Amino acid sequence: MSAPMVEADADVVVVGMGCAGAAAALEAARAGARVVALDRAAPGGSSAVSGGELYLGGGTALQQACGVDDDPDLMYAYLHEALGPHPDEDKLRLYCDGSVEHFEWFRGLGITFNPSLYDGVSWLPPTADGLMWLGENAWPFTGLARPVPRGHRPATDGFGGWLLMDRLTTAVREAGVDVHPDTRVTGLVQDDSGRVVGVRARRFGEDVTYRAHRGVVIATGGFADNAEMVADHAPVLIGHSVVSDGLDDGSGIRLGVAAGGTLRRMASTQVALSVVPALAVRGMLVDGLGQRFVNEDVYPGRFSQAAVRHRPGPWFTLVDERGWEDVPERERWGVQPAVVAETLAEVETELGLPPGSLEDTVARYNRDAAAGEDSLFHKDPRWLRPLEAPYAIVDATRGFDPEGTGSRGGTGVSGFTLGGLRTSVDGEVLDASGVPVPGLYAAGRATSGIHGEGYVSGTSLGDGTFFGRRAGRAAAGC
Amino acid sequence: MSAPMVEADADVVVVGMGCAGAAAALEAARAGARVVALDRAAPGGSSAVSGGELYLGGGTALQQACGVDDDPDLMYAYLHEALGPHPDEDKLRLYCDGSVEHFEWFRGLGITFNPSLYDGVSWLPPTADGLMWLGENAWPFTGLARPVPRGHRPATDGFGGWLLMDRLTTAVREAGVDVHPDTRVTGLVQDDSGRVVGVRARRFGEDVTYRAHRGVVIATGGFADNAEMVADHAPVLIGHSVVSDGLDDGSGIRLGVAAGGTLRRMASTQVALSVVPALAVRGMLVDGLGQRFVNEDVYPGRFSQAAVRHRPGPWFTLVDERGWEDVPERERWGVQPAVVAETLAEVETELGLPPGSLEDTVARYNRDAAAGEDSLFHKDPRWLRPLEAPYAIVDATRGFDPEGTGSRGGTGVSGFTLGGLRTSVDGEVLDASGVPVPGLYAAGRATSGIHGEGYVSGTSLGDGTFFGRRAGRAAAGC
Predict the structure, then answer these.
(1) Does the model's pTM come out above 0.90?
(2) Size of interface A-B (CB pairs under 8 A)
(3) Stretch B411-416: mean pLDDT, rounded?
(4) A317 in a domain, yes or no?
(5) Mean pLDDT value across chain B
(6) Mutation for A interface: B298, B357, B376, B413, most A CBs within 10 A
(7) Quick one: which of A25, A203, B175, B347 has the fewest CB in 10 Å?
(8) Which domain holds residue B366?
(9) What is the 3-state secondary structure (H, E, C) of chain A?
(10) Hey, are the CB atoms on A85 and B376 less than 8 Å from each other?
(11) What residues does the FAD-dependent oxidoreductase 2 FAD-binding domain cover (chains A, B) (predicted)?
C-alpha cells in the first residue's frame, strides 16, 4: 500500500466548517497562520440550519441602541443559573467578560441587528426585532439579577443561521483560508511523541493527508445523529428527533478520544418540546398527573427540560377560548386542539388524568390569578388571568405543523447534544490527567462548553464561535 | 532506568478484589487458569461495606422456601422498568435467565439465607429475614408484572457486605488464586499489536509488572470518590456523600480508556435520600412546592431519585402523631422532627412552602385515603389513612443519626456511580467501533452494567458478581 498523497501543508488544519470551525479558521488566518479548513459536506453545518440567535450581552451596542443597560456580572449571574446546575465557570466567566467584543466581531463580518426589542415569549419571534428575551425576565431569575434581554438576532426573516454562516464563510475565504468541501477526515496523524501533526482524509474517492505544522482544530459538531453514541451517553434523546444538518455523528469526538482526549458531560443535551409558548403563557402547561410544573413564561427550552427530563408525560397546553384567540393563527405553528371541552372533568377523562387533578390545578391557578400572584411558580402577573370554559388542550407530543399539511409526526421532542471533548479555555484537548494533547484543539459541540445541565438559545452558536476563535488563535501559536 | 521486576507470571491478572474481581478470579481459577488478583488495599472494596443484598430471582431456592413463585420473565419485566429507562437489554436478559444458577453459586460459597420474608418497607430490615421486597409490590410495577420479592439477604445482622466478601475471598484463596494486597496498578502493558499482556504496579514501594498470558480483568469499582471525574461526568453527585470504601477513584476506568476502551452512561448514578421509609409510607413525601411526587411505598432508591433528580427541594416527610408512633424508635434511624405543628399553614410558613400548597396536597390525600385509592400515585391502600393534626415534619436533607450523637451532617444525599467502561456480555472492553480490546476485560462498577437510569438495591453486587464470573471465564479462555 502506498502512502496517501499529501494534499496540503498548512500551519493549522480545521476539521468541520460550522460556526466553531469557521471562527477558528478565520482567527487563525488573521493571526498569520496558513490555514486549511475541511468539511465533509459544504460549509455551514448544523449552524446554517439553526435559528441564528446569539446569546450576547454585558452592554453590547445593540443593547445600548435598545436602551437596555447590562454588564458582564448580570449576564454571568443569569447564565450561571440558566445553564446550570454546574456550568463551566471558567469558560462562562470569559464568555461574559468578552461578550461585547464578540458582538463587534460579528458586526465586523457584516452582520446587522435591528435595534428593537421583541417583548413576547417565543421560540422564534414573528417580527424582525434584533433583540429578544431568552428567559431573563422570568422567575426565578428575576430574583437573582436585574432582567436584561440578551437574545441577539441577525437581521433576516425567520431562521438566521444561514446568514450567519454565509457571512462567516465569506470572511474565512477572504482571510485566505483554503476551504476544502467534500473532504471527510478519517484519522489524526500523530508523531512519535504523540503530537498531532496532521489529518488523514477521504476526498473525491482518494485517501489524502493534510499536514498541520502548528495544530489541528476539531469542530465537527455533536453526536445527536449517531444512534449508538446517543444510546451510550445521552439516552434522554433516544427515539426523539434531532436538531442538526443530519451529520452530527460524533466522528470528531471519537478522533479526539483516539488521540488521547477525554470526554465531559456527555449526557447533557438541549431538549425542545413542541409547545407554542404564546399559547402556554396565556394558559398553563400540565403534566400527566394533571399538575402544573413550571412558570410558562420561562425560556421555552427551560419548560421543555422541566417536562421531558423531570415530569411524567404526556404534556399538554391548556388554554381557554380567549387565550387561543389572543394568538394570531400564523403564530400557532399549525397546532390544533386535541380536545375542546366545556368542563375540566371531561378533559381529565379524555386525557386519562387522575380524576379531579386538573380541577384542583385550575382552581388554584384561578385563585392565584384573581389575586395577581402565581404562588407556585411566580409567572409574571401580566400573563395571569382566571381561565374559563370552554377549554382547549394542545398535546405537546404531537409536534408542530407550520405548513398546515395535517402531518404532525414524531414524538414532539427534539434535541441535540452538549457534551464532548474536555478542553481548556483555549480549546486545548485535555487528556485524563488534564494535560493538553500536543497539537490538538477543539471547539463547538464537539466539546463540552459553557453549559451545565441547562441550555438557552444562542449559547451554542455563542460559545462555538467564542471558543472557536480562541482555539484558532491558540492553534496558530498566538 | 532498569525494567521493573516481573513479580508474577499468570494466565489472568485481576485488578481489584471487590465482588466483581473476586467473582472473576474465582471463576478463572476454577476454569484452570493461573490467576493473580491484586488490590491496592485489602480484599473487600466497597462491596464489603455495602448492605449485602443481592437482587436475584426467577425461582431461586430461597424464593421457593418462602412460598414465592417467580420466573425469569417476571424478573425481567420488573427490572426493565425499575432500572430504566433504557437498561442494557442484552445483559439484563442474561442476568435474569441465569439468576437461579447464580443464587446456587452463592450458596456454594457457604452463604446462607433465612427462609422468611420481611414484609415492610425499609432500606435495611430490622429483622434477619432472608427475603425482602425491593419495590416490586408498588405502583406502577404492580400493573406490569405479578409482584414477587427478590431481595436476597445473606444471613447476618445488619449490613451483609462483609460476610459476602469474607466468603468470596476465602473461596478465591481456596481455588488457588494468588492474592496480592497493597498492590496498586498504575498501567496496562500492551504488546505491539495492542493486546493487553500485563499490568504495571506499585507494590511495597517498588515498581513491578505482572504478566497476563490470557487476559487482564479490571474490577476497580466506580468513580464516586474522584471529584474531578464526578464533575466531568456525574454532576448530580457534586457536593453529596459517597457510598464507598473511599477508594472508588475511577483509576481502572481511566486505565481501560488509555488502552482503547470507551465509556458508557457515565452520568448514571444511584442516589439515596436520608428518608426513613417506614415513616414516609405512613405519611407522605413532599417537595419544595408542597406537592407529593411519588407513591411512598416504592423502593426507597426510587423515591430518592424522584426527589433529587426531578423535584425542587428541600424534601420532607410529613407524618401525623399516629404514624410517628407506629414506627419503633430504633427503626427511626435517629431522625427527629424539624417541625411539629397543629396546622398545615404553620408547616407551610416554617418550611417556606407556597401558601396553601400543603393544605391542598393533604386535602387531596385525605379524600383519597378515605376512599381507599391514591388517585395520583396508587400507593398500596394498606398504607392509606387520612392524616390528622398534630403533624411532624422530618427534613430529608439533614441525614440520619442512628447512633443518636445529635450530629446529622452532610446534605442528606449520598450515592455512587453506575457508568464506566463499555463491555460485551462477556466482559470484553469495547473500543469506539465496538471491537474488543484484545486481552482486556472488566466487570462491576468500573463498567456500565445492566442499569439504565434507575437503580435497585442488590443489582450492583448482583451484576458485579454475575458479569464478573463471565469476565473471569472469558479471560481464562473458556
Answers:
(1) yes
(2) 83
(3) 94
(4) yes
(5) 95
(6) B376
(7) B175
(8) 275-411
(9) CCCCEEEEEEEEEEECCCHHHHHHHHHHHHCCCCEEEECCCCCCCHHHHCCCCEECCCCCHHHHHCCCCCCHHHHHHHHHHHCCCCCCHHHHHHHHHCHHHHHHHHHHCCCCCCCCEECCCCCCCCCCCCEECCCCCCCCHHHCCCCCCCEECCCCCCCCHHHHHHHHHHHHHHCCCEEECCEEEEEEEECCCCCEEEEEEEECCEEEEEEEEEEEEECCCCCCCCHHHHHHHCHHHCCCEECCCCCCCCHHHHHHHHCCCCEECCCCEEEEECCCHHHHHHCEEECCCCCCCCCCCCCHHHHHHHHHCCCCCCCEEEEEHHHHHHCCHHHHCCCCCCEEECCHHHHHHHHCCCCCHHHHHHHHHHHHHHHCCCCCCCCCHHHCCCCCCCEEEEEHHHCCCCCCCCCCCCCCEEEEECCEECECCCCEEECCCCCEEEEEEECHHHECCCCCCCCCCCHHHHHHHHHHHHHHHHHCCC
(10) no
(11) 11-460
